[in-house]
UniProtKB/TrEMBL annotation:
Pfam families per the UniProt record, alphabetical: HI0933_like, HI0933_like_1st
Assigned keywords, A-Z: FAD, Flavoprotein
Limits of the RsdA/BaiN/AoA(So)-like insert domain: 213-377
Taxon lineage: Bacteria, Bacillati, Bacillota, Clostridia, Peptostreptococcales
Name of the protein described by the UniProt record: NAD(P)/FAD-dependent oxidoreductase
SUPFAM superfamilies linked: FAD/NAD(P)-binding domain, HI0933 insert domain-like
Length: 449
């Protein structure tokens, strides 16, 4: 590739992941693929897609709604931002898009949407085929070294128009009128997500909300987990800060690992962890597990008390059999201070009371998370106050757009974050194409005049 100003495209997308592919396809459907370029650092597009949904690609969720998304900005602004974007390209629009490119969706538990093929590779291949079919240029194994905004005086290709100059690691110099940053966050570093796109956004004057791993298992130094690893239990998990402030609660299946806690409900809590100021260390957090959220303390007390009667001839160590995982039972009874000697009719009221308190609020100290490699998504990124919800365009640099995980917006586990990728990508691509068409029409009108 020669190094000159002729290497120009009307729209360039940096990042060939889910949001980048959607942005490029959306733009190309309006302008034509010969006007659109994707710059991808890996040797294939959509690499991270291949790992989603355990290789099955949970690419959306029928329950997806604006309250299911979060940012570090005030809740009301976040909800309005998510509501505005989802109203422009929602789940129904997404499913129709995928049908058009050959993917037959199917709904499973909790509203999760998968391809009927149950293969993530078919989603990745269909997106790639659509992009190539439209004639979109894809530059593989190409990293961006620097990006520069050119104002009207500098121009983009001696045409007097503002735009962007892109220098690749190989030394190639590219030019584009409209730029879409869709290079992802930091989650899943093994797939090439390193967060370098934040530096590009920061160069353009954007505020970066400090990224932290989200949808990621918790770690704990609690030695009890060595005995409990492999256990699965249903319950309610509540995150507490400094044991005094309740942060957030989720209900679902809890998975005990040798290093801490996992499961969808735990993953959904992880985005609420905050780092200490100017450090990479977390504040003091604990998780309290309610193993019987359907019962009040009083109801659970009555239930356990009645068991002391109809299980009166059973051994005390068997008291919780049939109520809770039998590997978890002795740990809880021991922590409740039970004397295992004897039979159930000898259980005291005080023992029942202590057990109820433990079953309703079993506490675990959290030391951190499993980090970027196991995180499914990034919490943090470009501040949404600096982005138009209607167009995904920067409020600081005209012609600059954002899509996907690079933005400070993340959702629940279960297809919500890929829905954000499709929604933001579609809007960014369509908006850039619309801006290009409007500029071309204005220029044509001026020439006639």
């Amino acid at each position: 590739m020669s190094k000159n100003r002729a290497i120009k495209k009307e729209i360039t997308v940096i990042g060939g992941g889910a949001s980048g592919l959607m942005a490029a396809i959306s733009a190309a459907r309006t302008l034509g693929g010969d006007s659109v370029r994707i710059i991808e650092k890996n040797d294939k597009v959509g690499r991270k897609l291949l790992a989603t949904g355990n290789g099955r690609c949970n690419f959306s969720n029928v329950k997806c709604s604006f309250p299911d998304f979060y940012s570090w900005i005030l809740d009301e602004y976040t909800i309005n931002f998510a509501k505005e974007t989802l109203s422009r390209f929602d789940v129904d629009d997404t499913l129709e898009f995928f049908r058009e490119i050959g993917i037959l969706p199917k709904e499973e538990a909790e509203g999760r949407i998968y391809p009927y093929s149950e293969q993530a590779s078919t989603v990745q291949e269909s997106l790639k085929a659509e992009a190539e079919g439209l004639g979109i240029e894809i530059l593989y194994s190409s990293s961006v070294k620097s990006v520069k905004f050119l104002d009207n005086e500098e121009g983009t290709a001696a045409d007097g128009n503002p735009g962007f100059e892109i220098l690749l690691d190989k030394g190639d110099l590219l030019y584009t009128r409209y730029l879409i940053l869709a290079a992802g966050g930091k989650a899943g570093s093994q797939y090439g997500s390193t967060g370098e796109s934040y530096q590009m956004a920061r160069f353009f004057g954007h505020t970066i909300v400090k990224p932290i791993p989200a949808l990621v298992p918790f770690t704990s130094e609690d030695q009890r987990f060595q005995m409990l690893k492999g256990i699965r239990a249903k319950g309610k998990v509540t995150l507490w800060k400094d044991r005094a402030v309740e942060i957030h609660a989720e209900t679902g299946e809890i998975q005990f690992t040798d290093e801490g806690l996992s499961g969808i409900c735990v993953l959904n809590l992880s985005r609420f962890l905050r780092l200490r100021e100017k450090t990479d260390a977390y504040h003091d957090y604990t998780v309290r597990i309610d193993f019987f959220p359907e019962y009040s303390e009083e109801e659970l007390h009555d239930l356990l008390h009645s068991r002391t009667e109809y299980l009166k001839n059973r051994k005390k160590e068997e008291f919780l059999n049939g109520m809770i995982n039998k590997r978890l039972s002795p740990v809880l009874l021991k922590e409740a201070g039970w004397d295992f000697a004897g039979i159930c009719r000898e259980i005291t009221s005080e023992e029942v009371k202590r057990l109820v308190m433990l079953l309703k609020s079993w506490e675990v100290e959290i030391s951190g998370t499993k980090g970027w490699k196991e995180a499914q998504v990034t919490s943090g990124g470009i501040c949404i106050l600096e982005i138009s919800a209607e167009t995904m365009e920067s409020k600081r640099i005209k012609g600059l757009y954002f899509a996907g995980e690079i933005i400070d917006m993340d959702g629940l586990c279960g297809g919500y974050n890929l829905q954000w990728a499709w929604t933001s990508g579609y809007i960014a691509g369509a908006s850039a194409a619309s801006a290009s068409s409007s500029a071309a029409a204005t220029a044509a009108s001026e020439r006639k005049g």
